TrEMBL record, chain A:
It is a multi-pass membrane protein. SUPFAM superfamilies: MetI-like. It holds the Pfam family BPD_transp_1_N. This is ABC transporter permease. It comes from Jiella avicenniae. GO terms for biological process: transmembrane transport. InterPro entries: BPD_transp_1_N, MetI-like, MetI-like_sf. Belongs to the binding-protein-dependent transport system permease family. One of its GO terms (cellular component) is plasma membrane. It is found in: Cell membrane. The chain crosses the membrane at residues 9-27, 99-122, 134-157, 177-197, 237-261, 281-307. Its main location: membrane.
TrEMBL record, chain B:
The keyword Transport applies. Belongs to the binding-protein-dependent transport system permease family. This is ABC transporter permease. Keywords: Cell membrane, Membrane, Transmembrane, Transmembrane helix, Transport. The chain crosses the membrane at residues 29-52, 93-119, 139-163, 212-236, 260-279. It is found in: Cell membrane. One of its GO terms (cellular component) is plasma membrane. It is a multi-pass membrane protein. PANTHER family: ABC TRANSPORTER PERMEASE PROTEIN (PTHR43386:SF6), OLIGOPEPTIDE TRANSPORT SYSTEM PERMEASE PROTEIN APPC (PTHR43386). It holds the Pfam family OppC_N. Residues 91-279 form the ABC transmembrane type-1 domain. GO terms for biological process: transmembrane transport.
TrEMBL record, chain C:
InterPro entries: AAA+_ATPase (IPR003593), ABC_Ni/Peptide_Import (IPR050388), ABC_transporter-like_ATP-bd (IPR003439), ABC_transporter-like_CS (IPR017871), Oligopep_ABC_C (IPR013563), P-loop_NTPase (IPR027417). Belongs to the ABC transporter superfamily. It holds the Pfam family ABC_tran. This is ABC transporter ATP-binding protein. The lineage of its organism: Bacteria, Pseudomonadati, Pseudomonadota, Alphaproteobacteria, Hyphomicrobiales. It is found in: Cell inner membrane. Its main location: membrane. Residues 15-265, 295-533 form the ABC transporter domain. PANTHER family: DIPEPTIDE TRANSPORT ATP-BINDING PROTEIN DPPD (PTHR43297:SF2), OLIGOPEPTIDE TRANSPORT ATP-BINDING PROTEIN APPD (PTHR43297). GO terms for molecular function: ATP binding; ATP hydrolysis activity. Keywords: ATP-binding, Cell membrane, Membrane, Nucleotide-binding, Transport.
UniProtKB/TrEMBL annotation, chain D:
InterPro entries: Peptide/Ni-bd, SBP_5, SBP_5_CS, SBP_5_dom. It holds the Pfam family SBP_bac_5. One of its GO terms (biological process) is peptide transport. Belongs to the bacterial solute-binding protein 5 family. This is ABC transporter substrate-binding protein. It is found in: Periplasm. It comes from Jiella avicenniae. The keyword Cell wall biogenesis/degradation does not apply. One of its GO terms (molecular function) is peptide transmembrane transporter activity. CDD domains: PBP2_NikA_DppA_OppA_like_16. It comes from the Bacteria.
């Protein structure tokens, strides 16, 4: 097991390098000049160059990459070109909102989608099935920001149940936290409910055809036991896989949701950084997100072993 | 012999043979509806120049944000352009983006996947790169690429497609890995078929079913991504109306003139809904297992 | 045992099925069972025999109320378990009946047990579902039943997951699970088909014993006449969803009334070896020396020693002869086959094809050799590409070796006729054929290459006896016609006895005994070989001739024990 | 959890610790705001990123400047320079200015403000500000005399010194401690010590999320009533928090729902949503408003030909563009003055071509005459800035109607600002035309107006007109002694600028601000400031 984890982490190093290099080059090729962004409207060519110089953007690419990766290895992610804030501090500030959003979203998703999927598979071919599928597919078919606006209109503006926007740390009490995080999470969840419900259904359909399910029925067990103890647990692996990739896919949804609900999270930070060509921030963020991606997938793979005793690493 | 033919084994068949029938009979209603809906959208797209009452980019600032009327069924946008006409033309772009993305992703992903599935070393290298690509949040990659190459239809298309490719590759690869163990592949080896022939004749066909399913999902998500890109200001320029940028230009007026978002949104959702339903049907008929395809 | 042991009074019958009709659900419903009736008296073992598609399993599933929802449904008839009708019972009631009054064990112990739950859990839930036993009582009960089914180290068993058990152990667990609540009726659906003969023998004995102990009635579904002969008190013969013949075992075996039953019995290969044929040629077409195959998982950290699949295998195959390789699963017989086909690369030893070494040849260098040695795979459903027409499959090889597509197609048609299929089959797809026919197509494909050696890996194991017989005849005929050498891999001694000139008996990857079939099977020298023969079901009965073989008759130990 | 794991994936403990630390800081930030404190939550027109009000002319950073820094001079609503930190005396020859700092000026760290600080700050300002650069050409010396006074000596007459130093926008004369002012002009400062009415709470600063300012208790306001940037800056609230809301829709909903107190720029189309609400005041705080304009690139064909530039101007018109940009007549007016209307130098000299609306036919003719070869015009359109996105779209249509071939290229604003700096030919990433906006005070005189600079490739603003004549006139203007002459020269300059089509003003507009009724005393001026504002319990 440990050996496996070690191997996986080793294996992920080249991935991270690929990412780092790729991102670095992509950014440097992208037109866009932090200096111009800093200087504002009135700057003259000379003044721009002055700034570029001080930002070290006139160095040759190789030099820039070497210095950057050098810093990385020493755990230093540098400072934002624009605001001069340390990148790690920026990220630190934005981490909590995004994590909260992601986690609450996943909770909502799992609570709804798994039962939906199981039900659909169990009643395969029935109206219930079609209904469940229709709902989930629908959730998959509406752009996140539209869903968001609709929810805001209904729950925040018309019903006034929740505030329109913003984020409060859970440190400030559950309701302040929950009332602000719920709508965005629900909005974001619509995608994953669709995704995971249909995956659950597919996996369950698979498993329900298995002999051991027939055995379980032959033992005279109640359908509930058959479905959840015998079938679902065997269907867990593919579902987990989707949950994993779901997390990875989430970032794009996060970007939009965060700006619709004004949540100061990583997603918005990233878009701002990209639009402002704030290189150190973008690089750090993308490394971070891909790191998260790698780790989540590792965790998922490990969890397989707990779900299915046949899997050993 | 004849009577032996009737002895075709029934037990294993029970599950296999009957489920698809049911699946089809159940889904017959929904997919038909979806197909019709999609067909209509395609027609709208193709004949937009004939149907559309106005030039989609001809603006008339004097009657901006006009409410829905006979002149402007969906009203006008902030530039006084006819939203109905724009929505029709938007269908063109969105379909191009969707189908284009699906097509290109498959076109590129299939061969890569085949190779990866067959040669260990290619697999090792290629998959690292693919993991790398997958690890980068697609939307960010897209934004970066768009601002890199300027936001034309084609760059957006590329930007949307690239992140999809790894998923296709993985899918194809997994199919190949399982299919190459099939006795009939071994049989082909035994009769001295070349690697290419084996890939092309015996392995590729296996990937088609999952690819169709995957393709529909790519198509759907591509159309959505285009909308999101527009939302984030990295979409196709306003002179090429797409459902995405119509909505993002209208979203400011969401509470006052919901139509600006509603109509293109409706078209977009119907379109994706139909595609997804067809995809699901394809999957249910072909093999429920393929649901995994989406996740790649 | 005799007619007197046949119960008269229906009232006490444990199971009564009265003209049960089962149809496929949906628009154009087809009859799967047309009016099946049968009964099982207390304590007796009733065998339900039939070939695949005869509907025997459907009958059993219907009895358990387990017909696949939405696919099959009972149209009419009654199924009385201890007088209570299963078909009309409410789901809840039906659940109560299961495992308490009737229970079932299935063919595939591998897939029939839930892979992710421990054995104890899976047994335990039966008890908690049907009884108010305390945790302690349940524990003891489980331990008890596991001992009853003769499982070693019960405590460890309880903690284990299915994949950690052997096939035989799994089947014992299944039995334990089925009998833990001592139901009156046990339905066994091909419970030993997936097992090796030796294991099969033990399981059959076990069932018999327990049945004795608990007085359970057994409805035993099988296709294997040998097993029937060994265990049955009464027999129902099924075909096309109907009972064709019914009666006490003795009578069925000695004077079957229906032709079908007759054919069925006649098709069972006799266990006594065929008389040796005169060798047609001295030329050795295929030989291996010190052939060995060791599987090693690559490991990043420490070097694991691999699992030995084959070791020091030396065989010689002469033109026109048939060499059988027999052994139980995991004996390495298939490994040998795949090595000589170079589908896998042996780790040691050499393989000579018509004198030429083929081990270590590059893909390119191998190509010309491939032509000379062809293979027939076990599962005809998977060895033909479902997407290609029969013609395409057959001509693929020849075209690879440069023959005209047109000519190849002509040849394909001839071959199809040679293997007893209509020439127009070339344009059809595999799924339009039955298993036996597909295997014929596979053979045609192999022959199209005009090979010197034909490797048949369990080529008939997946087929019904009647079909099996025909395919075997076909192979025999082809061999005499074309003088092809046949390397015949099988686990079935009967088959080997019928077709092989020589046999190699393998165990754990090593050759145990190697010699002319008559000697090896006639008077085996090695204990293991003897064991195998001992284990062959119904070996005291000469089915084709409807008479006992050796003294002792059909009432063999197992049945009367 | 997954974060820890992931941090471990790159660089173990150290990163974890620092990041945790960071987030803890962030949390304390959340917690810090006491509910009952007098806090104004404001959504400004954009998020503040750059904290150096001298290195950038970004308005948000300027506003930030007014919060934490004080300016040497102020300008009152009559556009007259007034003392703010310092009063002054001018020698009779008009060549020597002596400034005296008022008493009680203290840095946020408690140290007194000295003339050395002022001098250093002015010099740094002189390096970045266009007008100031021009002024410093005529400066002989700028030296501290003692702690309180310093002297500016001119070698030639430059009569615009005070106006420049008092200008409320562009780069106002924010005074920083000498140590900070010593930062090279090309490098952002990292020490945010000011002497202004508010203190910057650095610990709570989250770029793109919020900036927090708290009252500077030690600040001594002037006694005069506030008037624009002049007069007393009396702070009546404890905290001002600038909240960033990337989605304006959200901001509108937020102020409607009472989640924020002040919305600097209200999208005019959404006014209906707000005007209905009795708790809100919607008013234009900066009546002068904005000038929106088109700039043509003199370096690349076809706009290297003055005739074609004139054709372009004739083709364009103000109404259609304003209509698309603003829509609501109440908030837009067409204006022929490059200096903005309602300003001292306002004039419509030479504005006829643009003021007489789109004249496609006439433009066609002019193109004909100029022999336009159909070279496509690369028109850059920013997709992500609502206040500049519409102009190019309308512009493109008008130009096309006049027979121009237009290649409108959508891009995000940052790409645009980068690309407009390129003097290359179009095929190598150059450009022909773009639009942008100014607040009137930035353009209201030939000196301030960045466009009116004929310095060509080296000195001129993007578009790089090489126009010596223009520069001479500007110098004259700078040296003119009385307002009358100035007015005349300004008019001549504008006439000339229109003649050669230096740039094309396409109209003026104002943007209403929205505030909760609980806020009172918002000053009407070009710059949103938070002194003098009071907040009643909501």
């Amino acid at each position: 097991m440990l050996a496996y984890i070690a191997r996986r982490i080793l294996a992920s190093i080249p991935v991270m390098i690929v990412v780092a290099l790729f991102v670095f080059l992509l950014l440097r090729l992208t037109p866009g000049d932090p200096a111009a962004i800093i200087a504002g409207d009135m700057a003259t060519p000379a003044q721009l160059d002055q700034i570029r110089q001080s930002l070290g953007l006139n160095e040759p690419l190789v030099t820039q990459f070497v210095t950057w990766s050098g810093q990385l290895l020493s755990g230093d992610f540098g400072r934002s070109l624009i605001s001069k804030t340390p990148v790690l501090r920026l990220i630190g500030q934005r981490l909590e909102p995004t994590l909260s959003l992601a986690i609450v979203t996943m909770l909502i998703t799992l609570l709804l989608s798994i039962p939906m999927g199981v039900l659909a598979a169990w009643r395969h071919g029935s109206l219930t099935d079609s209904a469940v599928m229709a709902i989930s597919v629908l959730g998959f078919s509406i752009p996140v920001f539209v869903t968001g606006y609709i929810f805001i209109q209904i729950f925040a503006i018309d019903l006034r149940i929740f505030p329109v926007q913003g984020f409060k740390s859970i440190g400030e009490g559950f309701w302040p936290f929950f009332s602000r995080i719920f709508l965005p999470a629900l909005t974001l969840a619509t995608i994953y409910i669709a995704l995971i419900a249909r995956m659950t259904r597919a996996a369950m359909l698979d498993v329900l055809g298995e002999d051991y399910v027939r055995t379980a029925r032959a033992k005279g067990l109640s359908e509930r036991v058959v479905l959840f103890r015998h079938a679902l647990r065997n269907a867990a692996v593919p579902i987990l896989t989707v949950v994993g990739t779901g997390f990875a896919l989430m970032i794009s949804g996060v970007v939009v949701t965060e700006s619709v609900f004004n949540i100061p999270g990583l997603g918005r930070l990233t878009v701002d950084a990209i639009l402002a060509r704030d290189y150190p921030v973008i690089q750090a963020l993308i490394l971070l997100t891909s790191g998260i991606y790698v780790v989540i997938n590792l965790l998922i793979d490990i969890s397989y072993a707990f779900m299915d005793p046949r899997i050993r690493y | 012999m004849a009577d032996k033919a009737t002895l075709a084994s029934a037990e294993p068949v029970i599950r296999r043979r009957f489920l698809p029938q049911i699946a089809v009979s159940r889904l017959r209603f929904a997919p038909t509806l979806a197909a019709i809906c999609l067909a209509l959208i395609v027609v709208a797209a193709v004949f937009a120049p004939l149907i559309a009452p106005y030039d989609p980019i001809a603006m008339n600032p004097m009657e901006r944000l006009a409410p829905a009327s006979w002149a402007h069924p969906f009203g006008t946008d902030p530039y006084g352009r006819d939203v109905f006409s724009r929505t029709l033309y938007g269908a063109q772009i969105s379909l191009i983006v969707g189908l284009g993305a699906a097509f290109v992703a498959v076109l590129v992903g299939l061969p890569l996947g085949l190779l990866a599935g067959f040669f260990r070393w290619i697999d090792a290298v290629l998959m690292r790169i693919m993991d790398g690509l997958m690890a980068i949040p697609s939307i960010l990659l897209a934004i970066a690429i768009v601002s890199l190459a300027g936001s034309s239809l084609w760059t957006v298309l590329v930007a949307i497609t690239i992140p999809e490719i790894p998923r296709v590759v993985r899918l194809v690869r997994s199919v190949v890995l399982s299919a190459r163990e099939e006795p009939y592949v071994e049989a082909a080896i035994a009769v001295g078929s070349s690697l290419f022939k084996i890939m092309w004749r015996h392995l590729t066909p296996n990937t088609i079913a999952p690819l169709i399913v995957q393709g529909t999902y790519v198509c759907a998500s591509a159309i959505l991504t285009e909308a999101i890109l527009s939302f984030l200001g990295a979409g196709i320029g306003t002179e090429t109306p797409s459902w995405g940028n119509i909505m993002s230009e209208g979203r400011l007026y969401f509470q006052l003139k919901p139509g600006l978002v509603f109509w293109p949104g409706l078209f977009l959702s119907l379109c994706i809904l139909s595609i997804n339903i067809l995809g699901d049907t394809a999957r249910d008929v072909m093999d429920p297992r393929l649901g995994k395809g989406r996740a790649g | 045992m005799d007619a007197s042991r046949m119960p008269e009074a229906k009232t006490e019958d444990v199971l009564v099925v009265e003209d049960l009709v089962v149809e496929t659900a949906g628009r154009n419903s087809a009859k799967i069972l047309s009016g099946v009736s049968l009964r099982v008296a207390p304590g007796e073992t009733v065998c339900l025999v039939g070939e695949s598609g005869s509907g025997k399993s459907v009958t059993s599933l219907a009895t358990m109320g387990l017909l696949p929802k939405g696919a099959l449904m009972a149209r009419s008839g009654r199924i009385l378990v201890e007088g209570e009708d299963v078909l009309t019972a409410r789901p809840a009631r039906l659940r109560q009946l299961r495992a308490t009054r009737m229970s079932m064990i299935f063919q595939e112990p591998m897939t029939a047990l839930n892979p992710v739950l421990t054995i104890e859990r899976q047994l335990e839930e039966v008890l908690s579902a049907h009884s108010q036993m305390s945790a302690k009582e349940r524990r003891d009960r489980i331990r008890g039943i596991l001992e009853l089914v003769r499982l070693p180290d019960v405590e460890r068993m309880c903690r284990s997951h299915p994949h950690q058990l052997s096939g035989g152990q799994r089947q014992r667990v299944m039995i334990a699970m089925a009998l833990v609540l001592e139901p009156k009726l046990l339905i066994a659906d091909e419970p030993t088909t997936a097992l090796d003969v030796t294991t099969q023998k033990e399981i059959l004995r076990l069932i018999a014993e327990i049945q004795e102990r608990l007085g359970t009635s057994v409805l035993f579904i099988t296709h294997d006449m040998g097993v029937v002969a060994d265990i049955a008190t009464r027999v129902y013969v099924m075909r096309h969803g109907a009972i064709v013949e019914e009666g006490p075992i003795q009578r069925i075996l000695e004077k079957p009334e229906r032709d079908y039953t007759r054919d069925l019995l006649a098709a069972v290969p006799a266990l006594h070896p065929r008389e040796g044929r005169a060798a047609a040629s001295r030329e050795v077409v295929l030989s291996t020396s010190e052939l060995g195959m060791v599987y090693r998982q690559p490991s990043l950290f420490r070097k694991r020693q691999g699992t030995v699949a084959a070791k020091d295998v030396n065989i010689k195959l002469k033109r026109g002869r048939t060499l059988g390789v027999v052994g139980e699963s995991g004996s390495g017989k298939s490994t040998v086959a795949r090595c000589v086909m170079r589908l896998i690369d042996p780790t040691e030893g050499s393989i000579r094809l018509r004198g030429e070494e083929i081990v270590g040849l590059s893909r390119g260098a191998l190509r010309p050799m491939r032509k000379r040695i062809q293979m027939i795979f076990q599962d005809p459903n998977r060895s033909l590409n479902p997407r290609l027409t029969v013609g395409d499959s057959i001509t693929e090889g020849p075209i690879n070796y440069g023959s005209e597509p047109r000519a190849a197609r002509e040849r394909a048609m001839e071959l199809l006729e040679l293997v007893g299929l209509p020439a127009d089959a070339v344009d059809r797809h595999p799924h339009q054929f039955s298993g036996g026919q597909r295997q014929r197509i596979a053979i045609a494909r192999a022959l199209a290459m005009e090979p010197d050696v034909l490797v048949a890996d369990e080529a008939v194991s997946a087929l019904d006896v009647s079909v099996q017989a025909q395919v075997l005849d076909l192979l025999d005929e082809i061999q005499t016609r074309l003088g092809i050498a046949l390397l015949f891999i099988t686990h079935d001694l009967r088959v080997a006895a019928q077709i092989c000139d020589e046999v190699v008996v393998m165990q754990n990857g090593r050759v145990v005994e190697y010699g002319p079939t008559a000697e090896v099977l006639g008077n085996p020298r090695e204990a293991y070989t003897r064991q195998l023969i001992e284990a062959a079901p119904g070996r005291h009965w000469d089915f084709p001739n409807f008479r006992p073989l050796a003294p002792g008759g059909p009432g063999s130990i197992e049945a009367t024990a | 959890m997954s974060f820890l794991a992931n941090a471990a994936a790159f660089r173990p403990s150290r990163l974890v610790r620092s990041a945790l630390l960071a987030s803890v800081v962030a949390l304390s930030g959340f917690a810090a705001a006491p509910v009952d404190a007098q806090e104004i939550r404001a959504v400004m027109h954009s998020g503040i990123r750059v904290l150096d009000p001298v290195i950038t002319t970004a308005h948000i950073t300027r506003n930030h400047g007014y919060m934490i820094y004080d300016t040497l001079l102020g300008m009152d609503e009559n556009l007259k320079p007034q003392p703010q930190m310092a009063s002054w005396e001018v020698s009779d020859d008009g060549l020597t200015y002596t400034f005296t700092l008022r008493d009680g000026l203290k840095w946020h760290d408690g140290a007194p403000v000295t003339s050395a600080d002022a001098v250093a700050s002015l010099k740094r300002w002189g390096e970045r500000d266009g007008g100031a650069q021009m002024m410093f050409k005529s400066v002989e010396s700028l030296e501290p005399k003692d702690d309180k006074t310093f002297v500016l000596k001119l070698k030639e007459p430059f009569s615009y010194v005070l106006e420049l130093m008092a200008k409320p926008s562009g780069l106002p004369t924010f005074i920083m401690p000498e140590r900070v002012a010593k930062t090279p002009a090309g490098e952002s400062i990292t020490d945010y010590t000011g002497s202004g009415p508010f203190k910057f709470v650095e610990a709570e600063f989250e770029p793109g999320v919020r900036a927090v300012y708290e009252k500077n208790e030690d600040y001594v306001p002037r006694d005069e009533p506030p008037s624009w940037t002049a007069g007393g800056k009396v702070v009546n609230v404890d905290r001002v928090t600038w909240v960033v809301m990337p989605d304006i829709q959200t901001a509108v909903n937020a102020i409607n729902g009472g989640e924020i107190d002040f919305l600097e720029q209200t999208p005019i189309d959404l006014l209906p949503l707000l005007q209905a609400n009795p708790d809100l005041t919607v008013e234009v705080l900066s009546p002068l408003g904005y000038q929106t304009m088109a700039r043509l690139n003199w370096l690349n064909p076809p706009f290297d030909d003055v005739k074609i530039r004139q054709a372009a101007m004739t083709a364009l018109g103000q109404e259609p563009i304003l209509a698309a940009l603003v829509g609501n007549p109440e908030y837009m007016k067409s204006c022929g003055s490059m200096y903005g209307c309602g300003t001292p130098f306002a004039t419509d000299a030479g504005s006829e071509p643009i003021m007489s609306g789109p004249q496609p036919e006439k433009a066609k003719a002019m193109l004909e005459e100029a022999g336009y070869d159909g070279t496509p015009i690369v028109l850059m359109q920013p997709t992500d800035v609502p206040s500049i996105a519409p102009q190019p779209v309308v512009g493109a249509q008008l130009l096309r109607q006049a027979g121009f071939s237009v290649d409108m290229q959508p891009m995000d604003w940052q790409t645009l600002v980068t690309r407009r700096a390129s003097q290359a030919p179009v095929k190598d990433g150059g450009w022909n035309m773009f639009f942008t906006n100014w607040i009137i005070p930035e353009v209201w005189s030939p000196i301030n107006n960045p466009m009116l600079n004929g310095g060509g490739k080296e000195a001129a603003w993007f578009g790089w007109p090489d126009d010596p004549e223009l520069d001479e006139m500007r110098t004259k203007f700078a040296q003119a002694s009385d307002d009358e002459t100035r007015k005349e020269i300004a008019a001549d300059i504008q006439a000339h600028a229109f003649e050669v089509v230096n740039y094309i003003p396409v109209g003026e507009y104002t943007i209403p601000s929205t505030s909760r009724k609980s806020l009172s005393g918002m000053l009407k001026m070009p710059v949103p400031v938070f002194w003098n504002v009071e907040k009643a319990a909501d």
